[in-house]
Design a protein that fits this description.
Layout (H helix, E strand, L loop, with lengths): L3 E6 L2 E6 L2 E6 L7 H23 L8 E9 L4 E10 L9 H8 L3 H7 L16
Antiparallel strand pairs: 1-2, 2-3, 4-5
Helix pairs in contact: 1-2
Length: about 130
């Protein structure tokens, strides 16, 4: 997978992924990159929860994922992420643990548990092929 990152002006930085463009900005006019990173954790878990519900014909009304991020005061980095899958009172209890297992399948979470190697370099050229 290749992605091109461009600088269209001001504080904006865009990620081009095929025909999609994800805009980021540090001035509040678009999500900041770190906000998108954090959102990717909760939305990824949400995709797996949604898929679980849809495959079993279970209602999605009243179901949501609430994400809380806890920062380590010593490092000022994320130290813990809590994901609560909130279900309505009448949601079948027999599916509670299965929802947790579904959310734990999130590819973003798995990549954080087994982080990739980063290679950062400069290249002289007209751009990414």
């Amino acid at each position: 997978m290749e992605m091109e990152i461009t600088f269209p002006g001001g504080a904006r930085v865009d990620a081009h992924m095929g025909h999609l463009v994800v805009e980021t900005n540090q001035d509040g006019s678009a999500p900041a990159p770190f906000g998108l990173f954090l959102a990717s954790i909760g939305t990824c878990a949400g995709i797996y929860v949604l898929s679980f519900l849809q495959h079993r014909g279970l209602p999605t009304d009243g179901v949501k994922v609430v994400q809380r991020v806890h920062t380590n005061p010593a490092t000022r980095m994320v130290g813990q992420v809590d994901l609560d899958i909130v279900v309505p009172p009448d949601f079948p209890e027999k599916y509670h643990s299965a929802l947790v297992r579904a959310a734990n399948q999130c590819a973003v979470k798995k990549h954080l548990e087994q982080p990739p190697v980063f290679n950062v370099q400069t290249k002289v050229g007209a751009g990414v092929a």
